[in-house]
Amino acid sequence: MDIPLFHLDWLNNRMLIALIATVHALINHSLAVGFLPLMAWLENKGVMNSGPTEITDARWDKMVYKMMWTAFIITTTIGAMTGVGIWFSVSLVSPNSIASLIRVFYYAWFVEWTVFVTEVVLILIYFLTWKNSNKSIKAKTRHIKFGWYLSVFSWVTMAIIVSILGFMMDPGNWKNDKNLITAFTNPLYIPQLLYRTPLAMVLGGTLALFLASVFTKRGEEIRTNTFKLISKWILCWLPFAVAGSAYYFKVIPETQLANMNVAIGTQAFQQWYDIMWKVILGATSIILITAILGLWKPKMLRAPFLAITLLFALAFMGLFERVREFIRKPYIISEYMYSNLLREEDYPLYKKDGLLKWATYSSTPVITKENKIEAGRNVFMLACSRCHTTQGVNSVVDVFDKMYGSTGKPFDETMMKNYISNLHNARAYMPPFPGNKKEIDAIVAYIKQLQITGEVLEGAQETGVTLNPEQSVEAFKATAEKNLAKEKTDIENIKKK
Ligand code: HEC
């Protein structure tokens, strides 16, 4: 409402965030949180298993170094860039929600930033001093310690962000007691942490198995030994990952679980839900089988099979993220802000006066016959464009067309009006329509025109902005002056009396 809206009509705004954030989360969990402690552990094994005159087993150490090289390159390039990319994309697409989160989690994010910078410094030290540290046992021991410090800092960055993710699903007591501590200790925080930590370890393990198969030769003793160790690692963490995900599911709020149910969910929900369970079951079994083979029949494991295991493990996590984003709807911050970036508590005002009157950048504060289509476009931008495009992914023309049986006939105006005024009851994952009756008329006229002309909605990055004259500085000044003048006469009147 207060910030001009960026819009991508072909890809869909949410998809932009989803693509960047999913890549980032997968890299973070598999190559940082879960992988780094495994590397420190394996590096240490090289030292323990070396001969009495050696500092470490040189071949073993070289292999672990190569694995760490992979993690270093990917985390410091794609990992770091997608991390910054999340900030860019959410500030463009979802400025109000990120602004709210920054206000609530200000100090948590500040700490997160210092921890992150430390993590970057530690990964530089750990990776770049590796070769030099092989010169003395003292240096090697210190190097391994740095691996452990790095692992701890990497886990802490995740542990802070997870609280914010939990908060968005269920802010808990924060609704009554608005402070950082209640926000941080939201009901979903610990369950998510208990699920993500072992999951990251399992992901790190499956990735390390695959890399070990790339960096060693078939039949080599070093390969079987590495497979055995990593398989042990996976078998230790897998039960906790499964238990953690079950616990996490148990504490998801009822209303959100209902979102997964056929009764009110769309076809899409039901499909995702079914796929999710199949993938979770499939992934858990294939990871389990891989780890058991790795421990007892390591020679049977080959790179292509390990690549498939890795993909299943990544899909396991990817689907959890997808479902998490899905079930939070219609909210972006549960029971506080809807996905259209409007706060629930402001709804009565919008319903009474209309959305357009209170939008800072609206070219049509008052709807007339002449500006009806333009007003409809403005309403669509404010109320629907965070989830729907006009002609691209999840296009509003397509969803209406599908709902009316894909006949391609012009949409029925009355049916559309009824549907939009009932949006949230029809499909619980959509927020209620925020505006007044006139605005429903306008958005219907606009969508009908979209169907005929196929025109594309451009975001503020293309069209620029028009300030709502009712929300301009001049307008506020005029009101303030009027109020001041009135106050003055009131005071004078009182004095006279
Ligand atoms: C929270 C995001 C969100 C917002 C905001 C939103 N929608 Fe939707 N809408 C969806 C999703 C997701 C679907 C399901 C698409 C599917 O089933 O493939 C959908 C489906 C629809 C459908 C088809 C429903 C059906 O039963 O098949 C219509 C019509 C629709 N939206 C109109 C609107 C209009 C008009 C607005 C703005 C006033 C709006 N939506 C706002 C997410 C949203």
Automatic annotation (TrEMBL):
GO terms for molecular function: electron transfer activity; heme binding; metal ion binding. Residues 371-451 form the Cytochrome c domain. It comes from the Bacteria. InterPro entries: Cyt_c-like_dom, Cyt_c-like_dom_sf. The chain crosses the membrane at residues 15-42, 69-92, 104-128, 148-169, 193-215, 227-249, 275-296, 303-320. Pfam families: Cytochrome_CBB3. Keywords: Heme, Iron, Membrane, Metal-binding, Transmembrane, Transmembrane helix. The keyword Transmembrane applies. This is Cytochrome bd-I ubiquinol oxidase subunit 1 apoprotein. It comes from Pedobacter rhizosphaerae.
